[in-house]
TrEMBL record:
GO molecular function: protein disulfide isomerase activity; protein-disulfide reductase activity
EC code(s) of this entry: 5.3.4.1
Annotated ranges, domain Thioredoxin: 1-119
Any Pfam family the entry gives: Thioredoxin
Protein name according to UniProt: protein disulfide-isomerase
Cellular component terms per the entry's GO annotation: endoplasmic reticulum lumen
Tagged with keyword Cell division: no
Domain of life: Eukaryota
The species this protein was found in: Ramalina farinacea
Bias kind Low complexity: ranges: 258-282, 464-515
GO biological-process terms attached to the record: response to endoplasmic reticulum stress
Amino acid sequence: MYSKNSAVLQVDAKNYNKLISKSNQVSIVEFYAPWCGHCQNLKPKYEKAAKSLKDLAQVAAVDCDNEENKPLCGSLGIKGFPTLKIVKPSKKPGKPIIEDYQGQREAANIIEAVKGAIPNNVKRVTDKILSEWLKNENSTAKAIFFSDKGPTSAMTKVLANEFLGQINVAQIRDKEQEASKMFGVLEYPTIVVLPGGTQEPVVYDGAFTKAAMKDFLSQHASPSAAQKIKEKVKEKAQKVMGTDDKAEPVKAAEEDASSFSSVSSSQQASEASSAAASATEETLSDDSQPTESPEPAVTPEAKPIAVPTPPESIPSLKGREDLQAKCLGEKTSTCVLALLPAAAEGSQGGLEGSSGTALASLAEIAEKHRERKGNLFPFFSVPTSNALSGILRESLKLDSDQEIELVAVNGRRGWFRRYEGGQFDSLSVETWIDNIRFGEGSKGRLPESLLISEQTTSEQADGETTASEEPNTTSEEPSTPSEEPSAPSEEPSAPSEEPSAPSEEPSAAPTHGEL
C-alpha cells in the first residue's frame, strides 16, 4: 500500500525487531490490510504525519495480510484494521514499551502524540549545579545545548536518546550567565562538546540539521559504552537460545499465525459481505453499525471476564470560595479545571459524550499517579452553578458553556493553559498534562481580576463584623441600630474588581523551536 518512495517505513516480520523493537527511537506503527477501506482513508494522513516527523521518530507500517507477517500481527494482538501502536524504547534493550494509539486519526493528532512520547533524557543544568554536573562521570563525553528557548525541543531529545549511554546531554538556558561566560557562548543556539578527561571543549560550527549534528556528536561518542550494550544484548540472546526449547517458539508462532488468519479472514469477509459499504465505512456481518476497527468474529476459549474497578472521580468545586481558595489565590499552585457544560447541571448518573470521556481520562490519570505515589497537581471539575465558571470562560476567552473545557491555572505565577487537543481520550489528555509538568508549550497570562489575595479572603470571612463598625458617611442623620442594614449586602467586597497584583509576573509564553 505504501510505495518505496513513501515517507512511511515498510516493516515486515523479518526486520521488525531490528528496526522497531531494538531501536532507540520512538516509532508509531500502523498494522493494516490493503483491502481495508479505513486503511486507505488513513494513508494520506499517515504519510503527512511521516513527513512531519522525519528525523524525530519512525513512522512505520506492517501489512498483516501478508502470510509471513501474520505471526507477528497475531503476537501483538491485532484484531482490526487499521491498528496504530506507539513503540517507545525502555531501559531494557529489545523490550520496548508498546501503547495503543487511541487518538483521532488525523495527521496533527498523530504528530502531537508521537512527539509527546519521545523520552526526555536531557538534563536541565543551571549555574547552581553546573560545577557538580561537570565533575560527575568526567570520563564520559558531555554535550551542552545552549538555548534561548524554555522547553527542550523534540530534536534535542532525539539526539540525547540516540547517544544514550555514550554522551551525557544537557540543556542550559541563556539566562544562566555564568555557564555562558565559562564557555564563551555569545549566541543561541550553541552546542559545546566536552570530550572527557582533560580534553578541551569543542564548539559546533555546522548546520543545525539532525544529520550534521549527529555526525558531529558521533565523533565524540564513547564507543565502549555502545559496545557494552551490544554485548549484553548478544549474551542474553545466547542464553535464551541455549536454554529454551526450540520447538516452543515455533509452535507459538504457528498458533499466532493460525489465530490471526481467522481474525483477518473474518474481517475481510465482513467487509466483502456489504456491497453498500462506502470507502469510509466498514460493516460487520452480524451488525449493521459501522466501526472504525471491527472486532473479528473469533470465538476464544472461555475465560472469566475481569471487571476493572473504575478510578475514583475527581473532586468537584461547587462553591466560589472553594475555587478561589484552591486554585485562584495569589499563592495557589497549578490546578487543572474541567469546566463542565450547562447540560451537565443536574444530570443524573454519569456524563456522556466528550464531558464523560474527559472526566474519565482525568480520573484515570490521577489514579495512575496515585498508584505510582507521584507528585501531581490536583484536578477539579467546576459546574456551571459555580459563579466563577462563567467568569473564567469569559475572562480566558473560552467557548460558550455548551462544551466542556480543560484549563490549567497557576495563581502564584499568573498563567493559564487551555487544552486544545480536540479529543479527550486518556493518551491525548495525559500528553497535555505531561507537557505542563515539564514546562513545555505556550501559556497565556491569567487576568489579575480572577485572583484573590489572602487578605481579601480574610476580610470576606469577617466582613459582617468589619461592616458593623464602619460609620455611614452618606446619611444626613444618624441611623438607629435597628435601621442600619448589614454591610455585606450593600457594600460587598469585590475581589474580582480590585485584586492584589500577583506576587510575580508570569514569564513570556515559550514557543517550540528546533533547539
